From TrEMBL:
Residues 1-27 have a biased composition (Polar residues). Keywords: Heme, Hydrogen peroxide, Iron, Metal-binding, Oxidoreductase, Peroxidase. It comes from Paenibacillus rhizosphaerae. Residues 1-30 are annotated as: Disordered. InterPro entries: Catalase, Catalase_3, Catalase_AS, Catalase_clade1/3, Catalase_core, Catalase_haem_BS, Catalase_immune_responsive, Catalase_sf. It comes from the Bacteria. Pfam families: Catalase, Catalase-rel. This is Catalase. Residues 12-396 form the Catalase core domain. PROSITE patterns: CATALASE_1, CATALASE_2, CATALASE_3. One of its GO terms (molecular function) is heme binding. Its cofactor is heme.
Length: 486
């Protein structure tokens, strides 16, 4: 087979067509939503989901527990989602905590974000909040996710972790700076899974019975208080007890020391999204709590360990697309991609009928026209009608569950968010730190960047630190023996 060397450096799809833009997905206007016609985005996400067999591509290692959510503040004024109605109401749930980059056998105490995925078994079907222990993320468009995770995984030639890839990608993706600062700080290694916050991270829409909508963000605040691990102790534990976090959670619950979190939301009026100083759908940014204070919703308590790790923790499947009436997506480009990618990963990893497994099965009747597929453990619809519309009294749609109409505008194209200030919030986070925290942050970054071979990558990343705060950039440069590049 001949090779056209003149095109050897051009990015193409798997069918050989050139890719015109690999940084921005196709959206309706700057905010979106994302268009399903972006076949390059779909191919990247679908192929990425199928790169590992059979463990999860990301969040492979985790711990899980059962519990309940209790409403402490009736939120029916804002959402028709019944799990948030009626003070004192309880809803059963299952949670899975996880590291992101490591494999099933990796250590719990590495510096990494932690997955924070909650499945509520509600009276209207399962509702999943699939977030992290950070309120932000490294990137803000799903089209960059496979590339980002590749940098966190093993080099295909050496099968070793590759600091060159990590810092090259981050330095070429300045939107990552806020999360990098968070990750390299003290909260990058939680002391236990019980001593960290959780966040929905994305912006979502709440809609009430009157059809009135608001934008919201979820915050799970640990009632145990935030505690973090010293990096030297974390490294020691990684060698002595790589399952430290799993063990701690299991033993705490077994002893009756049930961990809990208080759930809060920030609420933003719809119209504020057009005037707020940061794009509220950009997942690399936070909303100021001075502008949109935390409002208490309820309490999450974990009080029962799994009986079987594989059946429950490994086979649990979460998707931000598992929504209930009263909760809808926002135009967040990372969220829009995840609505497809997570469920698609489960269809590949666990099977098309993953929601029939006990850990994922809703506690309400399931009525649809899906049939057959691997490992179909239900009645497969029995002898009932198997298509819709039909004249035989089969299940019909519920108008109550329709989404609220929303306006889209602009030309469809591959465009970034309008706001490109990647430095203010990262700098604010740095300036919030005590001098001791700053010193630890700088030391962690310097040690992580020392193995990077290309000076160009180091200087490019230092310039981002400097733009966030001159002191930040100067101290990293000095630690690496380089001259700061403003």
């Amino acid at each position: 087979m001949s090779t056209n060397h003149s095109n050897s450096n051009k990015l193409t799809t798997s069918w050989g067509a050139p890719v015109g833009d690999n940084q921005n997905s196709i959206t309706a206007g700057h905010r979106g939503p994302t268009l399903i016609q972006d076949v390059h985005l779909l191919e990247k996400l679908a192929h990425f989901n199928r790169e590992r067999v059979p463990e999860r591509v990301v969040h492979a290692k985790g711990a899980g527990a059962h519990g309940y959510f209790e409403v402490t503040n009736d939120m029916s004024k804002y959402t028709k989602a019944k799990l948030f109605h009626d003070k004192g109401k309880r809803t059963d749930l299952f949670i899975r905590f996880s590291t992101v980059a490591g494999e099933l056998g990796s250590a719990d105490t590495v510096r990494d974000p932690r997955g924070f995925a909650v499945k509520f078994y509600t009276e209207e079907g399962n509702y999943d909040i699939v977030g992290n222990n950070t309120p932000i993320f490294f990137i803000r468009d799903a089209i960059k996710f496979p590339d980002f995770i590749h940098t966190q995984k093993r080099d295909p030639r050496t099968h070793l972790k590759n600091p060159n890839a990590v810092w090259d990608f981050w330095s070429l993706s300045p939107e990552s700076l806020h999360q990098v600062t968070y990750l390299m700080g003290d909260r990058g290694i939680p002391a236990t899974l019980r001593h960290m916050h959780g966040f929905g991270s994305h912006t979502f829409k709440w809609v009430n019975e009157q059809g009135e909508a608001v934008w919201i963000k979820y915050h799970f605040k640990t009632d145990q208080g935030v505690k973090n691990l010293d990096p030297d102790l974390a490294a020691k534990l990684a060698g002595e007890n790589p399952d430290y976090h799993i063990q701690d959670l299991q033993q705490a619950i077994e002893a009756g020391d049930y961990p809990s979190w208080t759930l809060y939301v920030q609420i933003m009026p719809l119209e504020d999204a057009n005037t707020y100083r940061f794009d509220p759908f950009d997942v690399t940014k936070t909303w100021s709590q001075k502008d949109y204070p935390l409002i208490e919703v309820g309490k999450m308590v974990l009080d029962r360990n799994p009986e079987n790790y594989f059946a429950e923790v490994e086979q649990a499947t979460f998707s931000p697309g598992n929504l209930v009436p009263g909760v809808e997506p926002s135009p967040d480009k990372m969220l829009q991609g995840r609505l497809f990618a997570y469920a698609d990963a489960h269809r590949y990893r666990v099977g098309a009928n993953h929601n029939q497994l006990p850990i994922n099965r809703p506690k309400v009747p399931v009525n649809n026209y899906q049939r057959d597929g691997y490992m179909n453990s239900g009645t497969n619809g029995g002898g009932s009608v198997y298509y819709e519309p039909n004249s035989f009294n089969g299940p019909k749609e519920d108008p109550h569950a329709r989404i609220t109409p929303f306006e889209v505008e602009g030309y469809a194209g591959q465009t970034a968010y309008d706001h490109d200030d990647h430095y203010t919030q990262a700098g604010d986070l740095y300036r919030l730190m005590s001098e001791e925290e700053k010193a630890r942050l700088i030391r962690t970054i310097v040690e992580a960047m020392k193995p990077v071979e290309l000076e160009e990558i180091k200087l490019r990343q230092i310039s981002h630190f400097y733009k966030a705060d001159p002191d930040y950039g100067t101290r990293v440069a000095e630690g690496l023996g380089l001259t700061v590049q403003a």
